[in-house]
Write a structure and sequence with these properties.
Largest sheet: 3 strands, mixed
Order of helices and strands: EEEEEHHEHHEHEEEE
Number of strands: 11
Number of helices: 5
Distance between the termini: 28 Å
Amino acid sequence: DQQFNVLPVYLRMENPVYLDPSGKKGRTVFEMEYVYDEAGDIVDETGPAVRLFETMDEVAHEFDAVDEVARLKESLFDDLADGEIDASTLMDRIREGDYWIHDPDTGDIANTEFMRTVFERMGFDGVVADAHYHFGPKKGFGGVRLPGMEGVKPGTYHYMAFKPTQIKSKF
């Protein structure tokens, strides 16, 4: 049985990605901007969503997951119909879909590590996540209730810094 401790620390994150569907702590949105010609036809796409997809392609090569990432990106196009995708929606798609990105060294499933790497490459320095939404009780296959992470109640947030130098002991 694993034992966990909560430690009082100072945490410095200047540009976290928010995995918070309610937007209570913040919201990270990747927007797609379109460039039109004089006839009104789309001639280019720019913006944070394009940067997200380009970064996913770069990191996919390192994880030897080019085909899986292409399938994931294809599934995100419906979410981009309104011109944006929320980081929480992105993480929902990678968790709920049939995508298997593996760690190239261990062979372990590494979907969330893949996305952490993408976010870090994009300039984010950590994650603020609604822990109840992401790790709380859920309905599993056939409607079976899955208990989720122990102690995670509504209003619980997890803060994850990407570098140890962002964390200082309070003592």
